[in-house]
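Appendix C reproduces, verbatim, an entry submitted by the partner laboratory led by Prof. M.T., so that reviewers can inspect both the input and the predicted structure.
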Amino acid sequence: MILYRLCNPGAASYNECSMLTEISTGVRLATREWPGKGPAIVCIPGLTANHACWESMASFLAPDYRVIAYDLRGRGESEKPPKGYSVPIHAEDLAALLDHFGLKRAILFGHSLGANIGAYFASRYPQRVKQLVLLDGGIDVRAEIFDSLGPAVNRVGLEFPSMKMFLQMLQMLPMFAGRWNDELERYFRADVEITPSGTVKSKVAKHAIEEEVANFARERFWVYHHRIKCPTLILRAPDGLLSDTDCLMTQEEAEALAHAIPRAKLVVIPNTNHYTVLLGKNEKTRRVVRGFLNS
């Protein structure tokens, strides 16, 4: 059931709006579709992300592919129930979302936590995944990486005096120094809502992230990797976030992941970090993704 259409302020067209859709797990998820004549690609965002992070990738792939992106429960415009935040629960939402769109089988793209959801889903529902693309995620995350993701997590629940000050704060963070671009700005503008007083705050529910992180820390994803049967592309971003060395996935971890998944290919995208490997018009990312999908 499609309930109603949501538009972010500043949307250039009606097609840039998302649909709030109730799925069979009982939660309402915000989805956006880029129509195309080819196979369906479903895009899964990260821990505190929203579906706007897929804008550049989707615009590149459509109309050769039908691209669908969505906000995880507790994020963006999706419903934010008081509890129920873990990778297995997100996988059930994803299965229900595929059912809603009439997709018996789809290509999955996942970034960060979304890659973990995609990998788990592919291991549990192998018949429903044609190809899998994991962007800088899908592994058990080292403890110190949670510290490096602090700026993304800590903004949840905070209010900033204005959109301008919110964006200025972001541009000063080490992971964005010299890397800020239009894709990042569009994504972060979609991340917040303007309050009646004119301040801005994240659309992400703090309770969702707190439960998510606690459950994620207890999960062991390496036990699922060998069960993934579909062709899989792993994209690694080698640059750090708060320092030169705190990349989310080391080369050794990426190689181990590629070895564990039977039909996996690993590609390192140079001069990118965890954010810019997706949020930007990186020509190597596009070329590698296109080649993988056509193979």
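The mean pLDDT is 91. Additional entries are available on request from the coordinating office.
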